[in-house]
Design brief:
By secondary structure, the protein is of the alpha/beta class. Helices cover about 50% and strands about 10% of the residues. The protein has helices spanning about 10, 15-25, 30-40, 50-60, 75-85, 105-110, 130-145, 155-160, 165-175, 195-205, 225-240, 255-270, 290-300, and strands spanning about 60-65, 95-100, 115-120, 150, 180-185, 210-215, 245-250, 285. Strands 7-6-5-4-3-2-1-8 form an 8-stranded parallel beta sheet.
Length: about 325
């Protein structure tokens, strides 16, 4: 556990050498221990009233997402309508996440609803573009009405040890966000080791991330429980060290109510209930919401509704 920073944040990132020394000085991750703890927490059983509350909390944390080449304005408007009124008296979701060219459509549809507009930028999902393009991509999305930007790090630079390049890109994109929140996508499925997940988490937070996010949803594996656990440990330790709280967003592969509740247990047992709010924890998903709604109806009525009872996202 990292309890204090021995140098100021400015000194940590003063040079590539100091940044590398700090990141490689973080405690190593016990892979077996992380796997076992995540598996153990995944066996926790939540029933009846507690389960009903957990389902509504999970719904309120969903970033309802469509990131397909075939996205249309009509599809985005329909998704935004569902985000505000998922069904019955279910709570609205946290945000709708779309490509930058669909931000204006989403912003117009969601205006006044309280549901945020999130947009992937920075040459999502590969991140293979110049910094100028990434900054421009971000600025255009914010100008169109995005409240939140989900950026991808340059995994090639990170894996080759060029941590300063990754740091400086995050700093630049954060500046382009203005008042919008920045979620930094680590793409943990490409980082190879749990130690790299911890390092990338700290790197993103040191550079100013408001959230750290597991994945684009385009690479497998995506949001595995051990990876989410490691990222939750990182935000907890970062707050202990700096006083600044950073959110976590697992995304990709979270499809069922059981998956969502396992994530809520991870949050509660690892970071604590300060993170059990949409302000600090999100679930990036495209198909999860319907399962949450079906399970919610089952608890309320004793009967499942068929999948065709709900709109397809």
């Amino acid at each position: 556990m990292v309890s204090t920073l021995t140098t100021s944040l400015a000194d940590v990132a003063a040079t590539g050498a100091t940044l590398r020394a700090f990141l490689h000085g973080l405690p190593g991750v016990d892979r077996v221990g992380a796997d076992q703890r995540a598996a153990m927490l995944g066996t926790r059983s939540i029933k009846t009233t507690a389960k009903a509350k957990a389902i509504d909390l999970a719904i309120s944390m969903v970033d309802l997402t469509t990131l397909e080449g075939a996205d249309t304005a009509g599809k985005v408007r329909a998704m935004c309508t569902k985000a505000v009124r998922p069904g019955g008296d279910a709570p609205k979701v946290a945000a709708v996440c779309v490509y930058p060219d669909m931000v204006a459509v989403a912003a117009e549809t969601l205006r006044g609803s309280g549901v945020k507009v999130a947009s992937v930028a920075t040459a999502f999902p590969s991140g293979r573009s110049s910094l100028e393009v990434k900054v421009s991509d971000t600025a255009l999305a914010v100008a169109a009405g995005a409240d939140e930007i989900d950026m991808v790090i340059d995994r090639g630079a990170f894996l080759s040890g060029d941590y300063m390049k990754v740091f400086e890109e995050i700093v630049a994109v954060k500046a382009a966000c203005g008042a919008a929140h920045l979620k930094v996508i680590l793409e943990t499925g490409e980082l190879a080791t749990y130690d790299n997940v911890r390092r990338a988490s700290w790197l993103a937070m040191l550079a100013g991330a408001d959230f750290i996010k597991t994945s684009t949803g385009k690479v497998s594996p995506a949001a595995t429980p051990p990876v989410t656990l490691i990222m939750l440990e990182a935000v907890r330790d970062f707050r202990d060290a700096t006083g600044r709280q950073v959110g976590v967003k697992p995304a990709g592969g979270i499809r069922t109510t059981k998956d969502a509740i396992k994530n809520l247990v991870l949050v509660n047992e690892t970071a604590g209930d300060d993170w059990l709010t949409p302000d600090w924890f999100r679930l990036g998903a495209s198909s999860l919401l319907n399962d949450l709604l079906m399970q919610r109806q089952k608890l309320a009525t004793g009967r499942y509704a068929g999948p065709d009872y709900f709109t397809l996202d």
